[in-house]
Specification:
flat, 219 residues, DNA-binding, mainly alpha, homodimer
DNA sequence: CAACATATTCTTACAGTGTAAGGTGTCAAC
DNA sequence: GTTGACACCTTACACTGTAAGAATATGTTG
């Protein structure tokens, strides 16, 4: 009908899954997960909301593509690393991925990884445990347990980082001082500059535990 | 206008924050977090959607009340427990809380705990670390790191438990067998019956690490 | 008792959401 | 040309949270 719409769609690069995924990350990064809608996505793409549906059957499928894309950005463990060094590498790599998409990570953390690229990554990770000497069962269990720590850590860093202050009226300083002095004195040590140390503290604890478990499994 | 509405609102118990919170948990438990809306909540309460707004200024405030209520259900660490036993108790207690509200936990996991009851719980937890002999800084860091593991674990149990299959078309068995054999053979060991063992595996690893850290801090 | 005040609850309306159904313009193959 | 496939757009619907204000219920004062 209106000729400008045609011109618009001719002028710009045509839509594609890749371009849509990238634009989605941009919107989520700029406006936050809650503000991410098909219409705002379309606005950034220079098209109409429904045009996205020609490339993704639903918003949920698009979100899955975002998960896949984020997971695909995880570099595999270098082959010459031993098991512990490899797990350390994977942990930092996963954390870096989360911090690359801080506003998106809370979504990722809660979603099953059953897209092809996510499965490939999972497969490699579990394979590392098997290869190190864990039984099938122990490989599954220790890997999952390790994931608990990593995901919990990255979630905390991103959920706190990406979101503004809570909706509830914050407790005033005087009340904090009187009723929750431990929280107050812990506050500075929760600052962003400390996050990496906190992450490493627990990570090294995990790695020592894995070392012991591995020694026990091999004997 | 319509007289039945009056009769209805006379007949039932009057609205109150407590009744609304309870109904909210019921709706979330029965229909899931995504299906939880003010109108469905009102339906369960036998009132109109906007009536809720007299008791909570916004849905976000109501959600905060849910967080507060869930956290308030955490029993404090018994005073005669030593530090490690206390942390073990708190970990299981937290996990039990999450499993009590499985559909709600993914929301809780991502939200700051700055309501009064949540702060009281935080304050007690951090206090336990201080009392055990950690410095202010180490208390903050080791507590947070411990929380990473616990929250990651409970999130995984509830997010997998409370949600149905992913939206993406699942990868067919033949493909799994060929391309992701490690994931396939790990599958049975990720079954629900194994969750408690997995949780304990990582928990005991954490507790051993805390024991060592505490010994180092005291020396 | 009536009259007023306050606390609850309901009605209506609006801007926003995901997306079903079907239309329109462009281009390649015949 | 005509046809058909493809990419994109228009419209419409059922849903969301909630602002604004009307209506009712309850309590208080005369």
């Amino acid at each position: 009908m209106d000729q400008r719409t045609k011109i618009n769609s001719r002028k710009r690069e045509p839509l594609s899954p890749g371009r849509i995924v990238q634009a989605a990350f941009e919107v989520i990064g700029a406006e936050g997960l809650a503000e991410f809608s098909t219409r705002k996505l379309a606005q950034r793409l220079g098209c109409e909301a429904m045009s996205v549906y020609h490339h993704f059957p639903s918003k949920a499928h698009l979100m899955d593509a975002l998960v896949d894309s984020a997971v695909a950005s995880l570099r595999p463990i270098p082959p010459d690393f031993d098991f512990i060094a490899g797990q350390r590498f994977a942990a930092f790599e996963y954390r870096a991925m989360g911090l690359r998409f801080p506003a998106f990570f809370p979504f990722l953390s809660v979603h099953r990884m059953n897209t092809p690229k996510a499965l490939a990554w999972l497969n490699a990770m579990i394979g590392a445990y098997r290869k190190a000497g864990f039984s099938d069962r122990d490989a599954a269990h220790y890997f999952r347990q390790f994931g608990y720590y990593i995901i919990g850590a990255v979630l905390d860093e991103t959920a706190g980082y990406a979101r503004g202050p809570s909706t509830a009226a914050p407790v005033p300083f005087e009340v904090m001082k009187r009723d929750f002095p431990n929280v107050l004195s812990a506050g500075p040590h929760f600052a962003k500059g400390e996050w990496r140390r906190i992450f490493e503290l627990g990570l090294e604890m995990e790695l020592e535990g894995l070392t012991s478990a591995l020694a026990a499994a091999r004997s």
